[in-house]
Amino acid sequence: WTPHTRMRWAGAIVLVLAFLLRVFTKQGWYIVTYALGIYHLNLFIAFLTPKIDPALDLDDDGGPELPTRSNEEFRPFIRRLPEFKFWYAISKSTVIGIVCTFFDAFNVPVFWPILVMYFITLFCITMKRQIKVGSFTWRRFLLHSIATKHAATLST
């Protein structure tokens, strides 16, 4: 747990919105925007991915198993990229992106719709792969909540 989580993220969102507003009003720096978007996507994937990938655990039948040693009883979800480092990296990279918009050397002329389509394609492929692997926390949460509701209906 880290203090002032909501205020930190509100500040990060304001930074991202300020960057997007500057890019929109100046009509340029699409390469910087694309690079920043790819970097933020990479950070988001690292934030949602566990430090120890459960897909790499070798089990015989693919189903749940009982622990065989005492150290296997409880394994909490540990993120590959903690929340504070995620926030810090997003904030720092957005500030760097804003600074880049003040220099014409980074304003490379490109056809921006192609970058948008490529980013959307990359996002969909990456998310499909991550969901297929099943390493996201919300999947575990969803399965746990369904099992809890099912157990509650059986007990009544």
TrEMBL record:
<feature type="transmembrane region" description="Helical">
    <location>
        <begin position="7"/>
        <end position="25"/>
    </location>
</feature>
<dbReference type="GO" id="GO:0000139">
    <property type="term" value="C:Golgi membrane"/>
</dbReference>
<dbReference type="GO" id="GO:0005783">
    <property type="term" value="C:endoplasmic reticulum"/>
</dbReference>
<dbReference type="InterPro" id="IPR004932">
    <property type="entry name" value="Rer1"/>
</dbReference>
<protein>
    <submittedName>
        <fullName>Protein RER1</fullName>
    </submittedName>
</protein>
<keyword id="KW-0812">Transmembrane</keyword>
<keyword id="KW-0472">Membrane</keyword>
<dbReference type="Pfam" id="PF03248">
    <property type="entry name" value="Rer1"/>
</dbReference>
<dbReference type="GO" id="GO:0006621">
    <property type="term" value="P:protein retention in ER lumen"/>
</dbReference>
<feature type="transmembrane region" description="Helical">
    <location>
        <begin position="31"/>
        <end position="49"/>
    </location>
</feature>
<dbReference type="GO" id="GO:0006890">
    <property type="term" value="P:retrograde vesicle-mediated transport, Golgi to endoplasmic reticulum"/>
</dbReference>
<feature type="transmembrane region" description="Helical">
    <location>
        <begin position="86"/>
        <end position="104"/>
    </location>
</feature>
<comment type="similarity">
    <text>Belongs to the RER1 family.</text>
</comment>
<keyword id="KW-1133">Transmembrane helix</keyword>
<feature type="transmembrane region" description="Helical">
    <location>
        <begin position="110"/>
        <end position="127"/>
    </location>
</feature>
